[in-house]
Amino acid sequence: MTGFKGAISWTKRLWMLQNWRAIATEYHDLNLTLYEDFSIYADQLLTIPPSTYQTVICAILSMAAVLCVFTPRLKIVVPGVFSVISINLGVFGLLYYWDIDMDPISMAAILMAIGYSVDNIAHITYHYYKTEGNQDVKEQMQQALSSIAWPLLQANLSTILGVLALCVIRSYMVQVFIKVAVLVVVLGLIHALVVLPVVFAALPVRN
Question: Locate the SSD domain: which residues (predicted)?
Fold first, then answer.
């Protein structure tokens, strides 16, 4: 049997190999033996999704603990944690439509992106927390955004420009890193400058 004819993506190769193994198991009386050079990577690829999800969950819990330390307000921590979760879900979903498979390279890029996804959220939540006092919600949000909005835009713009300089490198690893970085920056800015301010503005202020 000649394997992987016309199969380019790792996902399709893994799917075909799993089907062959199922057929060999079903007809065990024929004493079928499967061999393919790719087989040595198959088991590794099968462990990547659960390992990635477990690591993402642990990272999100760690970020939640950090937010609890620096912004000890439940009404601030909960929206912040859900924003981090939303950003990462957006990255996972959009990478699928961007034809990025779950492999060791994309796994490493995603795990690096988790740390950056909390950056924008941490800044806006901390500045909103520091403005708590006798002022109303509008004044709190205005003061927080006036302090952090422009620096956030500058920081994320410099990140995007630095990453886009790598576009000239035709490497799968580099392309995955670029796509993940762009998604995290864009989604992080949307959540930090639009979603969270709207959520915080809708919450009651306790004097």
Answer: 73-202
